[in-house]
Amino acid sequence: MSHKLKSICLKCTPVLGFMLICLVGKGQYNFTAVDEFLQGNQKALGNDMATIIYKDGKVIYQKEMGEFTSKTKAPVASCSKWLTAALVMTFVDEGKISLDEKVSNYLPIFETYGKTYITIRNCLTQTTGIADNSRLIMKLLDRKKFETLDEEVNSFVKKEIAANPGTSFFYGNIGLNIAGRVLEVISKKSFESLIKQRLFTPLEMKNSSFSPEDNAVNPSGGAVSTAADYMNFLTMLLDKGMYKGKRILSEKAIAEMQTVQTKNAEKKFTPAVAAGYEYGLGEWIEEQDSKGNSTVVSCPDLFGTWPCIDKCRGYACVFFVRKLLSEQKKELHQELKKRIDAQIPADCN
After folding, report:
1. I want to staple 284 with a disulfide (CB 3.0 to 4.6 A). Which of 268, 272, 277, 334 is the partner?
2. Contact present, 41 and 262 (Cβ < 8 Å)
3. Vertex 224, ends 63 and 284: CA angle to 5°?
4. How does pLDDT run across 126-147, given as a tens digit for each residue?
5. Does some domain include residue 347?
6. Distance separating alpha carbons of residues 12 and 120, to the nearest angstrom
7. Which residue segment(s) compose the domain that 43 sits in?
């Protein structure tokens, strides 16, 4: 072999080696079990769905089924709470509001009706203590009465106090909607404008909105989005507040959102889809480590859509559906995650 040929071979060998490493890296996941699960349960999951898994800066799995794609718009119900909590935290990052400030500092009607001690934190943790109704149909009927968020929040403040703020957890729409109204007062802008300006536009969530058709905007459950859009939001959280080189939230804000806030609160009402979980700021803490730090966080909704972040395995997943499903789909979510986890080892100590 000539000296020139040897030189060429020596130069090519590292390149070929790198290419082989890339091929191995790309093919390191085998999601056959995930495919089989989704196909086997397609009818139970509503037929139309999209699933996306993101890790290490890229999508590592995507599945579209039925008459549904990753860009199909659909209501996300309670997944809205995660978005609203993040919006509040942009104001906290800017020093325009504090989590432990009293709501009455911005909405004086709370002092008028003896609810002075409710804080922004209470609102984001579902611990305001204001009496609520756990029946979904009654909540939907009540909301139709209001044309503005201001009107709805003024109706909340007139309700009875069922428990001292911070002592009782009751999952519903009251807290996050109060927080949304506080942001409107601080900024003198509508909730829809704020979330578009601060989250949807910088996160390239072009097909997401909170625009109501015939009643008040609903920060707790009124978002419409797509699997692709919501994944942009999740990747920002997973990447410690960064999205394509731009900071959306501080690491401190995300850490606070993902910290258990309800450990000592009496659980008055928790939906079946989140039974046994603790709550952070607008999101559920599904799993914790031995020190009580959150390792898996999520924000499932009654429609069946399930966004999730596994911090130990370093991935975000969104399972997005069109059809209203039963709350009993928790077991299906858990089985889906089990099959994903089988391919992605945990890094937590």
Report:
1. 277
2. no
3. 75
4. 999 998 875 554 555 566 788 8
5. no
6. 61
7. 32-341
